[in-house]
From TrEMBL:
Enzyme Commission number, as recorded: 1.14.13.208
Enzyme class, UniProt record, top EC level: oxidoreductase
Lineage start: Bacteria, Bacillati, Actinomycetota, Actinomycetes, Streptosporangiales
Protein name, UniProt field: Benzoyl-CoA 2,3-epoxidase subunit BoxB
GO molecular function, one term: oxidoreductase activity
Organism of this sequence: Nonomuraea guangzhouensis
Amino acid sequence: MSIDYGERIPNNVNLAEDRRLQRALESWQPGFLRWWGEMGPALPTQDVYLRTAVAVGREGWAHFDHVALPDYRWGIFLAERDPDRRIAFGQHRGQPVWQQVPGEFRAELQRLIVVQGDTEPASVEQQRRLGLTAPSLYDLRNLFQVNVEEGRHLWAMVYLLHAYFGRSGRDEADALLLRNSGSEDSPRILGAFNEETPDWLSFFMFTYFTDRDGKYQLGTLKESAFDPLSRTCEFMLKEEAHHMFVGTTGVDRVVERTATLMREHDSDDIQKYGGIPIDVIQKYINFHYSVSLDLFGGETSTNVANYYTAGLKGRWQEERRKDDHLLTEAATTVQQVVDGRLTDVRLPALTALNADLRGEYIADCATGLTRWNRILDGVATLYLPHVGFNRQVGAFAGHHVTPDGRLIDRATWELDRDRWLPTSADKAYVHGLMRPVYEPGKIAAWLAPPRNGINGRPLDYEYVHL
């Protein structure tokens, strides 16, 4: 399915055939552009070497060229429709998927779309000032690519709200531009999207851990019986893969430079040489991983069980699961704090779907640690902290769990937390390294250069014209 770029709003949903919807979205567009101008990237640029979707197929779906950021063609792109697709789980399993919103599930579906939509502009707001301290033009371009695609993901959710939810959907679409990350009066819905992203180490951790949460949330919505939502999320996942690539390879390069300095100087005290110490990298991992785990919600949830039974939101790779896809009799094991001890508790699988999704995410996150420890090659070791560490949501909220999984009291936690989480001194040191490098082919000294350029271009290509 090709995308029509002749329209004011590029799309592959035949928007021109629904004039009322087209006018509504065109009236929303100026507000979006104002939001982008006020809350998008703060660094002025002439143009950026960006990819733009031109089709939704598996191959050849993107075009690369220099584009002025305000002129980027945000639009509405859904994966191709499968006319034979049927609901894969829940009480409606085996029935044709829905092309319209069933009245009895209207509020629930709208809420799921709003929460997902709220995360997209939030990350742009969190990353607004990072361009001012980019370590290379290559990295600056990747930041802007992530930003414009998060903006397009906002458009994806806004289209669904306008097209299928009437006045309430239009009101919610307007509200997505009124909330702001970190605002005291009108913050973003989810806590992780109100945290600062003040430096590039935080950005790489965010795109590794928090965007990976986005991958799994989109994966559950891709299973939805509401077919337009499913098709929207399927295409969003194609774009999301690049965001996680930026995080994975970004941390790769930080770890590589740190390992090189540790070997050269036979010491883990590398601050004097302009590197990021391994213990600081670990603290950033601990923080971003634990904050991202909170995005999965509580281990048990009757709401999520109801979503599953109704067919609104499935499991990760639902159709590959070897069970009845109903879960009315299934059980699973979840760790909780019981009588002051970490204990495995047997729970109904249907109410523990958040824990199931979180388990898939944890296993995926662990692959990064394997990569980074391979780069370190014995000079040091990085790890994922225990699932209960530094948690504000779910079974471990209100408890204090060490990275190695020991339950401790509050006094001990306060005494030792600076060993596990970034301190103000750690943040100040990392911030001090954040000096912009805008010369083509040059790169800041605290990370290694990338292995390859973008789309076959050399590393010294002028990816951004300032």
